[in-house]
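Example 341, ligand 6-O-phosphono-beta-D-fructofuranose.
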Amino acid sequence: MRLGLLTAGGDCPGLNAVIRGVVAGATQRHGAEVVGIVDGWDGLMGGRVRRLDRDAVRGILQRGGTILGTSRRDPYVHGEGAASLRETLAREWIDALVVVGGDGTLRTALRLSEEGIRLVGVPKTIDNDIAGTDVTFGFDTAVQIATEAIDRITTTAESHDRVMVVEVMGRTRGWIATYAGIAAGADAILVPESPYDLEEVAQLLRFRAARGRSYSVVVVAEGIEPPPGAQIAAPLDAFGFERLGGVSAIVAARLEEMTGFEARVTVLGHIQRGGTPSAADRVLGSRLGVAAADLAAAGGFGRMVALRGTEIVDVSLEEACADLRGVPPEILGVAHTLSAP
Ligand code: F6P
């Protein structure tokens, strides 16, 4: 068996652990070969591949990013779907693909699988919003980075009696905001899942100040609706995706206006995605990689490896692509309770 392996979409800490896991699983357990595809679907459309043996994946576990490179190019947007991949698949004698990606990549994988391409999926995103799995690798690292940043911002907030608004990633779901906000003891957390009222937040800040806490930290997911009356013209990137970022500046300006407290903004951005993965993400990525090789060897095409509880299982790509997974009300409730003054 010859497996093609690609990583697509935004990068994510733990991708190299998955790559290493797929190669180890395929070669050690199934006597298979692995062909690495460079820059995601783009490399598959353009025939850019490299051989991945055990030596090629030594020493990569600790490294951030993906040794294969990634891109947001898509065979249905920038090519003719499955037809644009078949030449490379045939030329490289690839029997099946292991596709590591987020919701967009997995939706593309599902369509390709319906067109007869043999593939298995591995869920990937720091946003932790893919359905069918309890958690995605990369999330733990991103939360750790965001928590450390918020801790640091909190001490300077306290020294200067300021309101600090910290913007974290999360396009449509607020997992990083909620977890990092809880972990760092944020005073308010705004996420796309729940409507928010800035007057309530302003009230909370005034209440804290009246009790001697004249500083506050507000964590905002990048994908929240802008406050009423405000508009953000999110520019599109080269592939037509909205580039988010900047809502925190409006939130901070409004809070400053409403309370009279000096406010500052920090946008954490790609620092949440770069750098070495946490131990938990290395382990999860490794387990998913080995499991993906097993799933492909067993012919479980059109399916995705996933974590359920403490077990690695597989689920259909339809289930994984049905919806994005939001933060459950129970956890949002805990965040709300903890941030009460
Ligand atoms: O999908 C993961 C994600 O990190 C989002 O939270 C964020 O909006 C987006 O990627 C940013 O991606 P890019 O690399 O295109 O700036």
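Summary: The chain has a mean pLDDT of 96.
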